[in-house]
Structures are given as C-alpha cells and as structure tokens.
Design a protein that fits this description.
about 325 residues, binds coproporphyrinogen III, seven-stranded parallel β-sheet, single chain, about 10% strand, globular, 14 helices, TIM Barrel, alpha/beta, 9 strands, about 45% helix
Length: about 325
C-alpha cells in the first residue's frame, strides 16, 4: 500500500506523503519539449505512450508518493463528441452541444474514444517508478463539467448571462455527466488507478442555495459509486464556503483544501484526512519562505492524517528546483 493510502485508510499521522496538483506540466522543461512538438493538447492526452511518459516525468526528478495521470477533466466532453480544443493564452474552447445527439452515445462509443487514457494508466501502474506509490485517476466534478460543457469556455473569461436559463437542458446534461463519469471512473480503476480525485474547480461560483442541486447531490452519487469499487476518493471543492458541511454531506475519504481557507480552522473542524492547502505562489518566492510555509502546514496537521499538496495546481512559472526543495523539506520533516 502507498503512504497516501495509509494516511487515508489507516489514518496514519506519522507519515508525510506528498504529491502536487499539475505535477506533470508546464513548469517542467521536459514537458514543454514534448508539448512543443504536440500542438493538439487532447491528442497528446490520447497518446498513451507520451501521456505515460509525461505522467512519470515528475517522479523521475522528485521523491513524490503518487503519479497523477496526464489527462484532463475535459476528456469527458471529448468522449461525448463535443469538440474540445485548447488555445494558447485563452484556455479551453468547446464546440456546440447537441444534447439529443449526445444522448445516442453508447458506453462502447465513449470507451473507444477515451481508451488511450486507460492504456496510459496501465503503463504508469506497471512502471518501476510507481512501485509502492499511488496512481491517481481523476474526473471533473459534475458542476465544473457542466460549466465547461454549457459555457463552452472558462468562466474565468465570462459566464454566459443565460447560463441557468434552460433548466431541462441542465437536468439532461447532468444526467449524462453522471452516467459517463461513472464509466470513466470505473475504467480508470480497472486500468490501475488506486485513488480517484474529483476536481470541483468552480464550486466557488455558486451560492449556498444552489449547493444541493449542483454540488452535493451529483458529487455524492460519484463518491458513493467510487467507494463501492473499494477505492478511496478525494474531493477538491475549490472555493467552497463551508468545507465542514461539504464533508458531512458528501463524505469523501479525504478532502483537498484550497489556499484561501484557514488550515487551523480546518484541522479543528474536520475529522477526515486532509490534503493540500499551501498557496502555489509560495513556490515563486525563496527557499527560506518556502520551507517556513510548508512546515507551517505540517505543524498544523502533525496529529491529523495529512497529505501534503498545494491549494491549487503548481504554476507554470515555478522553478523546478523549488519543487525539489519542497519535496525534500517534506521528506526531511
Ligand atoms: O495534475 C496533473 O498533473 C494531471 C493532469 C491534469 C491536467 N488538467 C493537465 C493539463 C489535471 C488533473 C487537470 C485538471 C483540470 N483541467 C482542471 C481541474 C483542476 C484546476 O486546475 O482547477 C481543470 C479546470 C481543467 C481544464 C483545463 N485544462 C484548463 C482550464 C486548462 C487551460 C489553463 C491551464 O490551467 O493550463 C487546461 C490545460 C491543461 N490541462 C494543461 C495541462 C498540463 C496545460 C496545457 C498546455 O500545455 O497548454
């Protein structure tokens, strides 16, 4: 069993495992080298050999406790035949959605389209570098995927004024998302993922009154499903106002926190294993400050099952030597 699983399942507090969101990515020159030659991002995700190689790049450099498969949450709409492309300095742009056409897509159609992701997981799982480590599979949470699928671009740019106008379309789309996310989770597990993380990057956009319908109910459905397959599930509801309530309702096996919340309050209020929290911008400062901030989190959670991670993805401008120093700091604690 990996140390991450020991923390989650056995509630160990004497271990300090670490992995980093977006650990395989643009801050690594060896990733940028591959990316330069592969201009279509989705195609790159669907190249099993390259996706496995990119997934393993950070493990070659740093003593991390998990590999997270190089893929994207938008592989789901791609699998549903919605056009997805990534534009430089803009982010993802999606095509029009035809819900009636999408309703005809079968499980087999979907699996055929995204199968290279499962092959990549299998390659990662069977590589020496992940021995005694976790291989993390992931999905976007239903709400965050609904945002991309219907908004067709990042809400950071703009959330359509009429986003909530067609309730019947929202209901149908959420149903499709639930169905195919379960297929995607199951296949990642069957291919070797031993932990699933659910990314709800846009949880912070909603008001309390909408949480039941858009966040709690659909996420509960996925959490229960993943647990039924005997695999731990970590939830990351970035920007949610009340993490304690979220944990009580959704009941993930571990909760990943963002960098806006007070870790001391979280440690007191939340009984389940915690992951993450440190602001990714700390890696853009200096080593003394990085050490101080990282140790702050380890000290706060020293008697709490805790997995070190950041409060969002590592930034592309991060110097890999800072990541190296961070991992060493955690391992030497
Ligand atoms: O963590 C990892 O290393 C695994 C790979 C991973 C990627 N995306 C690769 C990626 C994971 C877990 C994701 C999740 C993801 N994707 C989320 C949830 C986490 C978060 O950041 O909030 C979201 C919202 C997306 C959608 C997405 N993918 C956006 C908005 C963008 C463009 C902006 C950006 O952050 O880069 C992407 C592109 C993307 N996904 C890249 C990578 C390495 C960069 C692609 C490039 O080289 O241009």
């Amino acid at each position: 069993m990996s140390d991450i699983k020991r923390v989650i399942k056995d509630k160990r507090t004497d271990l300090n495992p670490i992995w980093i969101m977006r650990q395989a990515g643009r801050y690594l020159p060896e990733f940028r080298e591959i990316r330069k030659k592969n201009t279509d991002f989705i195609k790159l995700c669907l190249n099993s050999n390259l996706a496995a190689e990119i997934t393993l790049q950070p493990l070659k450099r740093f003593n991390l406790d998990a590999a997270i498969i190089f893929s994207d949450i938008l592989i789901l709409p791609y699998g549903l035949k919605q056009h997805v492309e990534f534009r430089k300095n803009v982010g993802p742009i999606l095509g029009d959605l035809n819900i009636d056409q999408i309703s005809k897509i079968t499980e087999n159609d979907f699996i055929k389209r995204v199968d290279p992701v499962y092959k990549a997981i299998n390659l990662v799982k069977n590589n020496e570098l992940t021995k005694n480590k976790s291989t993390i599979g992931f999905v976007g949470a239903p709400w965050t995927l609904l945002v991309y699928i219907l908004n067709k671009q990042s809400p950071k740019i703009k959330l359509k004024e009429n986003f909530f106008a067609d309730f019947s379309l929202i209901e149908k789309t959420l149903k499709m998302i639930d169905r195919f996310l379960k297929i995607h989770i199951k296949n990642q597990i069957d291919s070797g993922a031993d932990i699933i993380q659910i990314f709800d990057s846009w949880a912070g956009l909603l008001e309390d009154k909408d949480y039941n319908f858009y966040i709690y109910n659909p996420t509960c459905s996925l959490v229960e499903f993943t647990k039924s397959l005997n695999v731990p599930v970590i939830c990351f509801p970035r920007g949610i106002k009340n993490y304690k309530k979220y944990c009580e309702i959704v009941k993930p096996d571990a909760i990943c926190i963002d960098y806006e919340v007070d870790p001391i309050k979280i440690e007191k209020e939340i009984k389940i294993p915690v992951q993450g929290g440190m602001d990714p911008k700390v890696l853009l400062t200096d080593k003394d400050n990085l050490k101080k901030e990282a140790i702050k989190y380890l000290d706060i959670f020293k008697d709490h099952p805790y997995i070190f991670n950041l409060g969002h993805g590592i930034l592309p401008e991060t110097d890999p030597s800072m990541m190296d120093y961070l991992v060493k700091t955690i391992k030497d604690y």
